[in-house]
């Protein structure tokens, strides 16, 4: 069994693969305050709930965009899983050619997503990841990671309205029944949801024009992917496990046996 961990700024996605099948997956909040012992106890509890013991794990691979958490997570895995985690970092095989001006600036989560999208859907492909930030990544038919777009995330935008506008409440982000809201809450929900749908479709169309290739597929992942994809005219696929699959594929590339 392979334990895969994607440490994001807001949430950490965890999965266990056996023979290419995802047999367990969880999402926990990312906290910079947790110690390695706290993280270790959480991991042990999740695995135990799925009937998996640390001894059943053959290896661990992880990626992170939150360096302060990486040290505690790595120590937890070493102490409680008795494994040295493989990190997705420069030098590891990913099957993706980075064409960024400074390749080290590309987050490992984006590379993991790109590896999964190329394996599952082929290139050219655009990946829209609805995380703390909403990111758009372009990969061409030559497996070149061309770059992308970074926007404020949906939840960040909603929280900014609550924080900066004294009379606007904190809201649940759901699709309202009508575009024209008749309450403050539904008006905010309409603006956030439909505003992001418009943003996604506009940016994707501009990226397609610039990539100038035929058959570009658009894959969405992340917490708000299904909500936005339900209204979007450009998103072709929704894959909530893209990063976990990417970690598994990268592990296979680097451990062919």
What oligomeric state is this?
single chain
What is the CATH topology assignment of the largest domain? Nucleotidyltransferase, domain 5
Instruction: Give the low-pLDDT segments.
Output: none
Compute the average pLDDT. Answer: 92
Q: Secondary-structure element sequence?
A: EEEHEHEEHEEEHHEHEH
The CATH architecture of the largest domain can be given as 2-Layer Sandwich
Shape: globular
Helix content: 25-40%
CATH superfamily of the largest domain: ATPase, nucleotide binding domain
Instruction: Note the total helix count.
Output: 7
What would you call the structural class? Answer: alpha/beta
| Count of spatially separate domains | 2
Based on CA atoms alone, the radius of gyration comes out at 19 Å
CATH class of the largest domain: Alpha Beta
How many angstroms does the end-to-end distance come to?
14 Å
| Strand ordering within the main sheet | 6-9-8-7-10-11
Which band does the percent of strand residues land in? 15-25%
Biggest sheet overview: 6 strands, mixed
β-strand number: 11
